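Hey, resending since the last one bounced:
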Amino acid sequence: MKHVSILILEGHTSLVNIEGTHQILSEVNNLVKEMGRPPVFDIQLVGISREAKQSTGLFTVTPNTLIKDVSKTDLIFIPALHGDPVKARELNKEFIPWIIDQYKNGAEIVSFCIGAFFLASTGLLKGKQCTTHWASANEFRNMFPDIELLDDKIMTAQDGIYTSGGAYSYLNLLIYLIEKYAGREVAVLTSKAFMIDIAMDSQSSFIIFRGQKEHDDEEIKKAQEYIEKNFNEKITIEQLADMLALSRRSLERRFKKATSNTVNEYIHRVKIEAAKISLESSRNNINEVMYKVGYADPKAFRVTFKRITGLSPIQYRNKYNRGLIA
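The structure tokens again:
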């Protein structure tokens, strides 16, 4: 039986992550009991104080036990932790040596959504892959440049560390872990009981690209703004470089450093974001949307759209615009 430690962090944590994990893993135990099998998980809420009052003032969580009383655990769950990541780390710094020791002693670690910031602050993600909520991707990259962030992924798994993307994608990671520890049959039954899509592996179709402007390079911001205002026209790197009186090489280097995208990647992401909005809200056909955002080649448009969103233009429209289609 796997000993599970769901961390009850101080500050403003995701009660959904905490209660949902507890409920679903408890249901797994009920399912395997009906099959005549022993329970899979020994689930505990683990904290650093007897009561963890949420900073919102609305809720208080009472842990089963404290970290000082847990000498060995098998699976540690870190819920999303809201607010300033630096302040959140300081509030919960007592957890960090315990998490590190448990990992060194064989425990596996799971972080949900922006809980990845707290996990990253332990140093255990250095040189590894992870994901987090797509809206926090730029902030994460700036804070932890030595971690490979895969912000299009629903989940990652590497060296006994698991991370999930935004918000309710934690459910998909739970199903993955249930399959690992309890088997495919139990995972399928659990997904059906809680109506969780067992096949999801990407959060690309949920991403809203707002541009990456959390940097101090004003010339690059000018290039970004130009792209965003003129995305339906043909924009070249040489044109942007001339406009800013920069060499092509300097523009490309600074643009990549500031935005984590190449110039061409940024142009395509802006175009596809505009296409997504049109597919969501208009009755224009696919070709009309394609031309409107500055593509002339249907195949190139479809390939780029799917690479960025994980869906074809038709699939995206069917997913998000059903109410407008006659």
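Residues 218-324 form a domain with the Arc Repressor Mutant, subunit A fold (CATH 1.10.10.60).

Sorry for the duplicate.
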